[in-house]
Design brief:
binds norvaline, five-stranded parallel sheet, 309 residues, alpha/beta, 2 domains, binds phosphoric acid mono(formamide)ester, Orn/put_carbamltrans, ornithine carbamoyltransferase activity
């Protein structure tokens, strides 16, 4: 039995199989209209969500199955009355696949250890692999390839989306360039950079981290940013973070250093005037809603693949 915990554990071949399946799911949704008939997805949420919840739930409906939204605030696990292991061992007797959006990555690892059905990471403080599968699908749709493209990420480097993009991009032969403030609370984790350097040397890609936003974005094919105030960041850090990240705001001026046909991406939710200007996210280079749509197709592919359906 396989899980989707992070893209670090998934081989490039596995990512390719799922991306190809996602493409077919998008082109031929009816072909999969009963692929999950009488199957149930349990969706465990500790954090808020729009896209992840709606795309997983709609995806199960479209494949003839069912999804249960379960907020940990109403659970024995969330109230400390039951361990994670007992909860997922019991849940595994009722459902066919579990996805979870949690704070601590270690809690997701514990779920995967004790579940007897596949477990999918729907975002932890450390990683967001479902997002990146949808992103890779969107990049390939727009650019025709992944390998050889320069993907520049600007902003919060010590971030779940950043780390997952680095894994996914380097596994697929991309040149991943992160522009983020110096300091370990703002730049990508050193172990992730080291892992990605190894993935890149195997795939023909590369990974680079720079505190210079112009150097990071220069000649990029894809420009990506994410919230400066992730769900787990305390509100009282907002002003300090805005000041720190403002030089990395994706503005039209900064975009001008990327290739003229570069696409702009943000996993959303987005704040205009923070991680990017309104002009960029609402402008012609932005593909953020095509990107969001692919959450549906990519996650249907993940569920089908892990459930052998
Ligand atoms: N991109 C993303 O995961 O969005 P939600 O937080 O709305 O699910
Ligand atoms: N980095 C963001 C992603 C939101 C989808 C967060 O963790 O809130």
């Amino acid at each position: 039995m396989e899980h989707l915990i992070t893209l670090k554990e998934w081989s490039p071949e596995k990512i390719r199989v799922v991306l190809d399946l996602a493409k077919d799911v998008k082109a031929n949704p009816d072909k999969y209209g009963s692929a999950m008939a009488r199957k149930t997805l349990l969706m465990i949420f500790e954090k808020p969500s729009l896209r992840t919840r709606l795309s997983f739930e709609s995806g199960m409906t479209q494949m003839g199955g069912h999804a249960i939204y379960y907020h940990t605030g109403n659970s024995p696990m969330g109230s400390g009355k039951e361990t994670i292991s007992d909860s997922v061992k019991a849940a595994s007797r009722f459902v066919d696949v579990i996805m979870a959006r949690l704070f601590k990555h270690g809690d997701l690892l514990e779920m995967a250890e004790y579940a007897t059905v596949p477990v999918i990471n729907a975002l932890t403080d450390d990683s967001h692999p479902c997002q990146i599968l949808a992103d890779l699908q969107a990049i390939e749709e727009k650019k025709g390839v992944l390998a050889g493209l320069k993907l520049a990420y600007l902003g919060d480097g010590f971030n779940n989306v950043t780390h997952s993009l680095m894994f996914g991009g380097t596994k697929m032969g991309m040149h991943v360039s992160v522009g983020s403030p110096a300091g370990e609370e703002y730049s990508p984790r050193a172990d992730v950079v080291a892992d990605c350097a190894a993935f890149a040397s195997a795939s023909g890609g590369s990974v680079a981290v720079s505190a210079d936003p112009v150097e990071a974005i220069k000649d990029a094919d894809v420009v990506y940013t994410d919230s400066w105030m992730s769900y787990h960041i305390p509100k009282d850090q907002e002003q300090a973070r805005i000041a720190k990240f403002m030089p990395y705001q994706v503005s039209a001026e900064l975009m001008a250093h990327a290739k003229p046909d570069a696409i702009f991406m943000n996993c959303l939710p987005a704040i205009r005037g923070c991680e990017q200007t309104a002009e960029v996210i609402d402008g012609p280079q932005s593909i953020v809603f095509d990107e969001a749509e692919n959450r549906l197709h990519a996650q249907k592919a993940v569920v089908l693949n892990l459930c052998n359906a």
